[in-house]
Amino acid sequence: xxxxxxxxxxxxxxxxxxxxxxxxxxxxxxxxxxxxxxxxxxxxxxxxxxxxxxxxxxxxxxxxxxxxxxxxxxxxxxxxxxxxxxxxxxxxxxxxxxxxxxxxxxxxxxxxxxxxxxxxxxxxxxxxxxxxxxxxxxxxxxxxxxxxxxxxxxxxxxxxxxxxxxxxxxxxxxxxxxxxxxxxxxxxxxxxxxxxxxxxxxxxxxxxxxxxxxxxxxxxxxxxxxxxxxxxxxxxxxxxxxxxxxxxxxxxxxxxxxxxxxxxxxxxxxxxxxxxxxxxxxxxxxxxxxxxxxxxxxxxxxxxxxxxxxxxxxxxxxxxxxxxxxxxxxxxxxxxxxxxxxxxxxxxxxxxxxxxxxxxxxxxxxxxxxxxxxxxxxxxxxxxxxxxxxx
Amino acid sequence: xxxxxxxxxxxxxxxxxxxxxxxxxxxxxxxxxxxxxxxxxxxxxxxxxxxxxxxxxxxxxxxxxxxxxxxxxxxxxxxxxxxxxxxxxxxxxxxxxxxxxxxxxxxxxxxxxxxxxxxxxxxxxxxxxxxxxxxxxxxxxxxxxxxxxxxxxxxxxxxxxxxxxxxxxxxxxxxxxxxxxxxxxxxxxxxxxxxxxxxxxxxxxxxxxxxxxxxxxxxxxxxxxxxxxxxxxxxxxxxxxxxxxxxxxxxxxxxxxxxxxxxxxxxxxxxxxxxxxxxxxxxxxxxxxxxxxxxxxxxxxxxxxxxxxxxxxxxxxxxxxxxxxxxxxxxxxxxxxxxxxxxxxxxxxxxxxxxxxxxxxxxxxxxxxxxxxxxxxxxxxxxxxxxxxxxxxx
Lengths: 391, 394
Fold this sequence. Notes:
The structure holds two protein chains of two kinds. By secondary structure, chain A is an alpha/beta fold. Chain A has helices at 18-29, 38-48, 55-78, 82-101, 108-127, 174-187, 201-205, 216-227, 245-255, 271-280, 293-298, 303-310, 339-348, 374-388, and strands at 133-139, 145-151, 163-167, 191-195, 237-242, 259-265, 326-331, 354-359. The longest helix of chain A has 24 residues, at 55-78. Chain A is globular and about 50 Å long. Chain B contains 14 helices and eight strands. Chain B has helices spanning 21-32, 41-51, 58-81, 85-103, 111-130, 177-190, 204-209, 219-231, 248-258, 274-283, 296-301, 306-313, 342-351, 377-391, and strands at residues 136-142, 148-154, 166-170, 194-198, 240-245, 262-268, 329-334, 357-362. The longest helix of chain B is centred in the N-terminal third of the chain and has 24 residues, at 58-81.
């Protein structure tokens, strides 16, 4: 059964199901970056319509499409049709990861699909003619490493271009982040380090690195790593993150002054309160993934445990310390995080140079993290980054 | 004027307006162009919601798309002013496509239609100037009687060849060089081929502003393109292919059969006896799957009646022509094409004289089964571009 219906001012493939519609809407917006193709999406969508809200069905159908598109990739690769192969692999990666998204707890089937998705991305990275993508490991605590992709700047003559560190959200992965427009950042002359931070992507699934409130641990690790590279300007590093990343990015920029710009792609203010409300409503509200997800990534046995761990996820008293230029982007019609939270965050940020951009229903991009019109959001954000980092 | 929607779309592809084939087909094309930045779902859906209120009313279609075109154009101009060139290029590209898709169903072409079309060209010119993605030159191909054919030369990438192979890409019944650019040009150039996008007789700027009407001896346009390419020092005119889309399934084979300088030919969608196609449509009183209003035909022929149009269509038959073709030939067709049947595809393929010929049929299962793969354009474009790269040795 669907958790909550989707309202009707954006492209809702399943009007009775917010979560599924939100996923489809995000995917279709990613077409601009090669994430999907309407024909494939609609083929799966027609089959999904038959069992609305059944997450097993969702998993099976998306894996089926992913396998098909991966097959196209393998065939093209064999024929040395590299560009066709890489575009197929990128879509396959997206389909595997979106399939796995709603499968919780993560069983072997889920992890296998996820790994296949990562493998497809690696093939894409190897075959594409642009941009140049390196698979990297960023040294973290206790000998552990955080997985990332280093994507090289384009259209620049600088030997050491500025760089943007891009962290995930509650349920995002570095592969999905790539498909949210990273190539357009590199086209503006900045390199991008895309990270699976604690609690997300490979870090949670394959390395057991759980979500934690002191997210600056990951931010500082990324900065330390960038300082060892000779092909970036480690003095011109920005940080951005999406969705729950509206907590991560401001936290990191407030706690580590080496960041020279901070972009919250969607606001977070008191994340404890956000989940308290969701739990009180028995998750019958607009969610991007099933409610159980939070327990898993916090490594909590019960929802009460999870809530106890969320106690630290508050930006008040933290963002007042921020000094670097700050951009907050939020959607007027965001059903997951209200505009009230955006205002609270924006008002509290200590930076003198701060901007809040609210996308309206009229101009498009009014939904959570502009998933209804991704390109309009990315154009705004990436132009801002370019200006602030002097790319 | 409101029209009753005709020709229910079969629900095996993304049909935004399940009761209206023509409108759904146009939306499907727009969705497929999202991958190359020609459109984006949020904007399609915003317009779509307005359109749903008056399904089948082409005036309404024109107004709503024009409004969205204006909105994107404003975004583009404002980004340009701030020197945000890449954002501006994106906005202008989408504005151009929204204007052209808006103008598509407005017939006869009045002052309003032409004004919007000119705006679309201006947006494309701005896109061209601002993008980092391709080097695009606006060129004029000398044609008959001092006239010229408007075209874009898009330069090859990822190649070290000083004279890379080149693909001449002609339109269809109702296409334009700007739409062609968004459909396939960047995929072709990334594979090391340059592309010449031409508004040939009966299409785009040629019909709207230069009174160049549709004609059956389409090789005149191919010859003009080749003569032009031979004068350029930055393409290999001896490795020139020709492709065209939709009605282009007539143009490209006709060109390659009559002009041996073409070294490869792609028919993106089949044609065989185009006169018969229209006879059937007229008999069915246009209550059939059409891409644009029926009147479009008399306009591009410059005739007053459908009878006159049918006379002009007499020459549009590939039997007796394609038997002469010698270069490698690829025919791409959709199994479920509701405008041109599979039978037509088989007739054309069988008749082509080339030894090296392939027929690729996209099925419902794999996607791309609709007319010219409008339900999954990238799948078709990958296949065509890889084939051309191989045949032209790019």
